[in-house]
Amino acid sequence: MTFDEGADQHHLIEWLEDSVSFLPTFLEEPCAVADEICGYEWRKVGIEIRGQDGNEEIEESELQRKVVVRKKANGKGGGASSSNGGGKDARWAEQLLNPCAVAIEAANFSRVQHLFYVLDELASLSGDANHRVAFHGLRALSFRLFSSAAGASALRRPPSAAAATAVPCFATTEPKLFRSALIKFHEVSPWFTLPNALANAAILQTLTLDRAQARPLHVVDLGVSHGVQWPTLLEALTRRPGGGPQPPLVRLTVAGDSAPPGPFSRAPPGYDFSSHLLRYAKSIDLNLRIDRAGSLAGRDLALGAGETLVVCAQFRLGHAGHDDRTAILRSVRELNPDLVILSDLDGADSAVAGGGSPGGFARGAEMLWRFLDSTSAAFKGRDCGERRVVEGEGARKAKKISAITPLITNK
């Protein structure tokens, strides 16, 4: 969906702060890989897991070569995509992080210390996707290891530089930068834009099925768009194909607190999109009401008779545990909505189910690599505050997975 240009769009443009093109730029250039990154011939790290004592063997020459590559990449400072097609041979960060998780679980602290040293040399927030995966993965493992007295005392070294570095995330970001990061990410990346567009299209289709009368529309928002998803829907409601009637009332109930917190779900204190969205709705002559609810109980949502009820849960249930997810779905079922929209990352639930085990950490690291590689292409390798906020928030997933269950076992 795109916005039609015209004088009646000035309120929306003001809300977006003139920073979003109506056609996202990721459609123009879906991939941007720097030439200097493509020039490297990435080799598979020689890793062998021998027995259960965690004595993995990694070629020393390979580790030294990666240190040299890291220095070259930092010298360029581009942070472009390093996917080379996304093959596992190119994703060397995971091939160092995963054996480190195995060594931590096996309490092989000499091996952990060696891998921490290598990862510390390679980790960077300004390098390519591999260097940033190494940074966030090492940070997650460091927090898990140093939260244990046994791990901290046995390692005989201070926490890694990655663990000591403050990483921005949604909850700690200044509201203006947070809003700018949301809008910029929505502009350049399909990560949330496409699911949001599909969700809005499903809502419009549901309204089209009932042409007998114009019923109030009530959307219960469990997603992570923080308001960015809804201007497109509101505008489309006033321009329905075939001249369908406009809902006499559109209610948006933000019920994000009823689901367990996850990546991209928390906004910084002081951020409120309601006034901007209400102003835009007024400019297009749409009757909009915005409420907040602490639960999915019908009394908290103040359900109205005869309204079209839609529950939109974007990127939340995959980050919840089995019991929480079951409780949420049961609550949604009791509401008897006309439409339920569920969007999530493929494999998010399996990563959570894996807990703090090396297998769960490996799945989380793979998801993190996919995300950071996509942001490299979306931002065309450019480093900026908005990108660091988005990537720091996405990296919370790896930290959460590594901390679900203890990685230290007593020998």
TrEMBL record:
VHIID (motif): residue ranges: 217-221
Annotated segments matching region SAW: 403-411
Keywords: Transcription, Transcription regulation
Entry-linked InterPro entries: TF_GRAS
Region (PFYRE): 309-400
Domain of life, per lineage: Eukaryota
Assigned protein family: Belongs to the GRAS family.
Record-linked PANTHER family: OSJNBA0084A10.13 PROTEIN-RELATED (PTHR31636)
Protein name: Nodulation-signaling pathway 1 protein
